[in-house]
Structure formats: structure tokens, C-alpha cells
Amino acid sequence: MEVKVFASIKEKIGSDTIDLFVGDSITAGELKSHIFVDYPELDGEVFQVAKNEAFVKDDEVLTSEDTIALIPPVSGG
Amino acid sequence: MKMFEVVNDELDINKYHQMTVNEHQGAVCTFTGHVREWTKGTRTVHLEYEAYIPMAEKMLAQIGDEIEARWPGVITAIGHRIGKLEISDIAVVIVTSSPHRTDSYRANEYAVERLKEIVPIWKKEIWEDGEQWIGDSRKYHPSVEEK
User: Fold this and answer.
1) What is this model's ipTM?
2) Domain that holds residue B58
3) Closest CA to A62 of A32, A36, A19, A24
């Protein structure tokens, strides 16, 4: 599952996407746990999960067909 | 013409202004947010903005919908610039128009507050001796509506 990352997370990873080896579907909450295991350097980072360009809650099911992104706290304006 | 957009180049204030004017509107309120050199004694050299563009434009449009629900008759247009911005450059333009002035003022302030809560755009401050991505110190606002 490919996950888009931005800003501070992108800089820490050194890439604008991360690949997670998970099954065909996973909840947003499980995704968060996986990320911290696979990318321990993100420990302490705060983010929300977006599915198909909308914020979702932890119980939302994500599949490899969806566009998934990690959204750190925003600072536009 | 897009009423809610993220752009890489200089913002054209008049373009957004004109999009909100029609024969029903008697008041137009235009807010521009600029790059500030001094923040609590720290000098910023320049800023870099990054966006998740398709989601950011959807969220800006959502703010327009929220405004329409709260203040029927208000027309909103918002442009946000990303990339490298110098001191005093315009980072955001928010235009709200309404039949009478009060709604345009209120809707305009609402728009900028919501923009700072829900629109995936990030600012990096570059100082003389370092740089940092800026997160909202309030973290996420409880009113962020997750589906």
C-alpha cells in the first residue's frame, strides 16, 4: 500500500511516498501502528489519515485502491 | 476559473475579487495574508509552503460550502500560493462578498480560521541559523470533521 507523505514526515523519510507491506485492506488505526513499526524515525510525529482526499477516523477501512495520505498538523495562511 | 485553488505563482487579488461580484452583492471583503519577517523576535529569511494540492483545493471548497450554509448569499473565493515566498509576499487571498457588509466580514474571518484548521498546506520557516516546519500549535481543532 502506497502512502503519500508531506512536510516534516516527507523530510524525515526522504521520499514523498512510503510503501507498507500490509494486506488488501487495513483500518486507518492499524495503518498508524504499522507506520510507527516500519518507520521508527517517525516516533513522535503527529498526523491524521486521509483517504481519497478526505480526513478519516481510525475505524475507516482502507484498501490498496484508495489514495492514502498522512496529514501532519497544517500551517497554511 | 477556479474559485478555490492552490497556485505556484504570484496571486492576482483582482481575479478572486471579481469572481465574487454580481448584481446581488453590495459588499466585498478581501483579506490577504503576507509573509512576516519578525515573529516574537526571530527573523524569518523566507518561507516555503507545500500543499497536498487536490485535497487542499477540496478543503478550500468545503470552507466555501460551510460559509454558504452559515451565511446564505455569501460568495467565497480563496487562493493560496505555495513554493518559496519572500518577506511581504502574499501567501493567501480570501474574498467574501455578500448583499450587506456584516456577513462578508464574519464569513471572511471564519474562512481564515478554518483554513488554518483543515486545509493540508504546510509552512516551513527559514531563519538565518536554521529552518523548521511549522505545525499548528493547537494541533488539530476538535471541529475537524472526520468521516
Assistant:
1) 0.95
2) 4-134
3) A24
